[in-house]
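User: For documentation purposes, I need each entry recorded in a consistent format: the amino acid sequence on its own, followed directly by the corresponding structure tokens. There are two entries in this batch. Please keep commentary to a minimum and don't merge the entries.

Assistant: Recorded as requested. Entry 1:
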Amino acid sequence: MSSKQDQPSSFSIHEATDVGWDIHTPVNETVDAQGNPFPDKVFFGMPDPRAPMRRVYDDADVEKLREHLKQHNGIRGLDICEPDQFDRIARIFHRDGFVVVRNLLDAEQLDSFRAGCVQRLQQILSIEGEGKRKYVTESYRLPHRYSLGTSSASRELLHDPIWASMVDLPTTTPILEKLFGSSDYRVRGAGGDLCLPGAVEYQHLHSDVEDEQVIPAGRIEQAVALGVDVKLDQYGEPDLLSKRLIMEMTPGYITINFLMSDLSWENGPIRQIPGTHITRQLPPTPEEEPEWMRLSTLVGAKAGDGVIRDLRAWHGATPNLSRCIRAMPNVEYVSPWVSAALSRQTMPDEIWRGLTSHGKKICRLVKAEPGVWPAGAGEMHPIASRRKALKLQSKQAPEQTK
């Protein structure tokens, strides 16, 4: 077992590593905004009642779970598309609420994103845990899991040239134009998540956003562009079936998670529940979740592939029982009818100026003013109160470009 003194100063984001598997971090423990143990079921820290009792690689309960996952984990017949199969991608995405697409990143882009993930995770793991603990758990999340977005004091990573370079790719832009029905979508932010080896708990199923069930004119226009035959009722409004189709076909938010490694049965593959992007029901609790949902994972997706997700769909992280970190950095996009008031100016102007013309267009509302460094950008901390303090300090400092 590694101590704080002999933890590696460098590691791979996709190969075997000594990072993770901290026996001193209790299973299912969450911490509050100050880093204190916080047992209430809130945010992303709902306990998994079926998790192994110890965070140990060769523990008997871990071995039992590992054998079960080896035999059963993964969606059987998972649909995986090529980047130029636009109609098939759109059909599966609107049907299931997600779609896996091969080779969205080339070798150079994959290496770049891997390096960026290592850099950000090094910042997070450089903060020592208390006592014998190797790591600090992120506020309100289960141990060994980190959000690259919420761990940033700016809540985004658009200040990072690596993330910014991924907003407009030759492989992703035509797909997004197909899914949104036009090129008028916008970038909302960028981040992603990381799962260390030894994350033995299932994260509870959840949606990242709720559909507000409103249909402004722009949403109707988007639906028509996507091929929805909108029929009007006697009052000149879309009839009930048309309203349902409009909401089904026009998610407000779409994210692309880029895979840094192959998703295997044991390294914490994301699970997605098909068709749940159009339901108004709440996901089952960890106690009630059926086994088939726990096994509804994207095993078979490869490094460099992307998971394009409707953020309304139920999903969740699964146990990483391997020796490798599982990382999925992302870029998030919004439909043109989503309020511009929700945009945060977290991309420095000099980063924005280096984008393509289309990249500039879709990032225009997240761009900071010239010479202004976005508050908190570049600072990473897993504890919410420390992130807030770091952001406040940067606001009080003289405006500068880093």
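Entry 2:
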Amino acid sequence: MRLYNIILQRYEFFVYLQKNNSMKVTPVPQNVAEEVLSLNGIQNIGHANIREVSKIINEIEQRTGVEFVRMEIGVPGLPTPEVGVEAHIQALKNGISSIYPPIDGTPDFKKEAVRFVKNFLDIDVVPECCIPTTGSMQAGMATVMTVNRMDKNKEGTLFIDPGFPVQKAQCKMLGHTYRSFDVYNFRGEKLREKLEEMLSDGKVSSILYSSPNNPAWYCLTDEELRMIGEVANKYNVVVIEDLAYFGMDFRKDYSTPGKSPYQPTVAKYTDNFILFISSSKAFSYAGERMALVVFSEKVWNIQAPDLLRYFQTDKLGRAYLFGALYALSAGTSHSAQYGFTAMLKASNDGTYNYIEAVREYGERAKIMKKYFTDNGFYIVYDKDGEVPIADGFFFTVSYPGYTGGELLKELLNYGISAITLDTTGSECQGIRACVSLVKAKQLPLLKERLELFHKQNG
């Protein structure tokens, strides 16, 4: 009888708490996330990087057995095209793995790179200026390592934020200073004014941004790209354009080789450019760490005596290739170059449509964004000019009354993960959601958990 009374009292207390909304019943018990964060020494999850957040989620899942809807990390979730896989395998069977790769790329790789840039960007480049790197991560490190050292009187990179946090970390590792601003309030003509303000003292060596953007998925308009190019010309600054999500603005079809529309690029408006074209997302080849770096002939042939402080040459292209890349890895995977080459060739020949293969990301994002907005959230970076942003690999959301860190911490209790905008250089409050690892079968689960979140927090 005594046990029965205790159980009854506890049940009545539970009902009381529920009625008074002083305790929430959530998929993940309320105290678990707090304990895991504490054990990992994370006082504010709003400042945690992607890998730290992933570790936290792994531990919560192990403790509770609750499957998370994981939106924190941009790992591609689609299979690699068969044409690339077969070429990669064949290269290995032919014994290529026993031979050091040419550091500047195989002849076929360079040939198809030139064709790809012409077919899908409508830009003419030469084979010498097309270089394979171990992903865009290495491309970024090698680029700032050389470009920012061309002039001892300049201080580093201007980041158009929000952006990929590791690129700033690379500058810090190299001892470079940098500047940045959140583009949220500087779209259109305001962008030119802000760039002029940031560059007018002549201290900046390079401008770096991504479009489509990680994390906000906005795309710079042609007019904004023109502004960047014109300002770069005026102040003799190298523009580093990160095209990690090449062609993945699904509002237009950039997939037909040699025909308009083409992937927008600053290279239309300046010859002070370096482009990063990653194989990870558009070609789902992330595990092989392959990217294509494209220099304009002008930038490749820059002669800068101050480079001799760090390299054996004052020619930028040679310093990049035989200084930075040689010291970092002495080239990239030989067999993976064959795989990437095959995918570039198939795209160039029109036998493989790289956009159709990844369009699923946009379809998934459209559904997920609606689940969020139907439950009290709003899209933070919502427009390019007057046009709503595309549905793609990422999107950003916020919830009234919450900072980004508070929102992410609360969502952990509902089995939903993301990263905050705080870590990306954004001045806005909210989170970045990635759609790539959210499985189709999890979409109803996401909807259910967001409805519960809104009911208990709205």
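Summary note for entry 2:
The longest strand covers residues 204-210.
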